[in-house]
């Protein structure tokens, strides 16, 4: 029972169905699709998480004295560090060289999804420290080396830091909708040279192609079969192993419906590339992409420019285009901080990591400032 909230009890569930959709979503809210019951259950029911990928569900729930669940968190026992996008391989190697054991560890995250959002989901306004203390106890009970809350919100990051967790800073590149009525309004906000580059890229990418944005009932099983070919083409080229199964995409379409936006590029009516997005009320989240033809600038067109078009047309405030990629800056996506917090049980490793992340935070702030200075947007007095 957590010391910070003695009236609460931690329970751990190996399947999210044991908590139930109504209870989970009452804690998660209805905005961020990645922490929804629909998304997490699709990962589990499709076999995308589990023994095959080393993500073992340990959904955490805090119950009150009456047995009602007041807060939940998507927690996974990990036997590797793959599919996380916040890298700790060096920490694992250091502990194991010293004779310790880094795995298993606990990951508070959305598997395979470098998407910022809430990780401590509460319907009772509970402080993050309450669940943090419970997760520390869980790590001890399961003999896990550490707990990692990755891509959490800034308030969670601050609260976990106050609770003694180590704070790490990263960066992604996001596009902001400044009330544009059309794509040309966005272009007008850029310097002349950058406008010309984007126009040329769009012209070359669009030559001979048409584009669709599919959602809801238009996401048929046949469409998902085609998109899975795109997904595996990218995986084979970059990583060599597909975390997500074909069934995941079908379940995603069935369970999230209108919140899924699949951008397709077609040649003579036949899809040759696709980009998968999810949306909340104010954010379009870019996730997976792939192609079966090598078309110049098509990746930029489908993943960045079509996303901007869609956001403008639907009044969406922000596009988050996924992890990494400084090349996004010249296409209107500017650096924004991302946050993670880490509890490490081993005192020696904790001291070493604390020094590392302190230096890393300072370096990341300097890097983001330098990247922001390379903004493509017009400066005062510039045409």
Description of the structure:
With 383 residues, this protein is an alpha+beta fold. The protein has two domains: 9-171 and 336-372, 3-Layer(aba) Sandwich (Aminopeptidase), CATH 3.40.630; 178-316, Gcn5-related N-acetyltransferase (GNAT) (Aminopeptidase), CATH 3.40.630.30. 37% of the residues lie in helices and 25% in strands. The strands form two sheets. It has an eleven-stranded mixed sheet with strand order 2-5-6-8-15-9-14-13-12-11-10, with helices on both faces. It has a four-stranded antiparallel sheet with strand order 1-3-4-7, sandwiched between helices. Strand 3 (59-63) and strand 4 form a beta hairpin. Helix 2 (37-45) runs antiparallel to helix 9 (246-256) and helix 7 crosses helix 10. The longest helix is centred in the last third of the chain and has 26 residues, at 347-372.
């Amino acid at each position: 029972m957590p010391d910070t909230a003695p009236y609460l009890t931690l329970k751990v569930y190996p399947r999210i169905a044991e908590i139930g959709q109504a209870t989970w979503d009452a804690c998660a809210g209805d905005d961020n699709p990645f922490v929804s019951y629909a998304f997490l259950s699709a990962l589990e029911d499709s076999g995308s998480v589990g023994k095959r990928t080393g993500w073992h569900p340990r959904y955490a729930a805090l119950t009150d004295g009456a047995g009602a669940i007041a807060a939940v968190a998507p927690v996974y026992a990990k036997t590797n560090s793959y599919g996380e996008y916040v890298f700790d391989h060096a920490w694992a190697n250091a502990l194991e060289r010293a004779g310790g054991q880094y795995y298993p560890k606990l990951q508070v995250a959305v598997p395979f999804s470098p998407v910022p959002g809430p990780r401590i989901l509460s319907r009772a306004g509970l402080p993050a420290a309450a669940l943090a203390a419970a997760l520390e106890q869980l790590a001890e009970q399961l003999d896990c080396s550490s707990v990692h809350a990755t891509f959490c919100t800034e308030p969670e990051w601050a609260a976990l830091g106050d609770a003694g967790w180590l704070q790490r800073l990263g960066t992604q590149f996001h596009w902001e909708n400044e009330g544009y009525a059309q794509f040309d309004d966005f272009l007008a906000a850029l310097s002349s040279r950058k406008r010309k580059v984007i126009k040329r890229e769009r012209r070359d990418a669009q030559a001979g192609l048409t584009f669709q944005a599919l959602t809801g009932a238009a996401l048929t099983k046949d469409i998902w079969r085609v998109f899975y070919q795109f997904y595996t083409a990218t995986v084979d080229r970059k990583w060599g192993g597909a975390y997500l199964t074909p069934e995941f995409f079908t379940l995603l379409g069935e369970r999230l419906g209108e919140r899924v936006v699949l951008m397709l590029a077609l040649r003579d009516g036949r899809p040759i590339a696709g980009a998968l997005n999810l949306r909340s009320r104010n954010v379009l989240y870019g996730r997976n992409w792939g192609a079966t033809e090598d078309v110049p600038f098509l990746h930029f067109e489908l993943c960045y420019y079509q996303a901007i078009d869609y956001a403008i047309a639907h009044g969406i405030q922000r596009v988050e285009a996924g992890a990494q990629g400084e090349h996004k800056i010249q296409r209107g996506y500017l650096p924004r901080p991302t946050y993670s917090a880490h509890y490490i049980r081993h005192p020696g490793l904790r001291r070493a990591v604390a020094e590392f992340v302190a230096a890393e935070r300072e370096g990341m702030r300097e890097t983001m400032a330098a990247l922001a200075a390379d903004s493509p947007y017009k400066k005062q007095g510039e045409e």
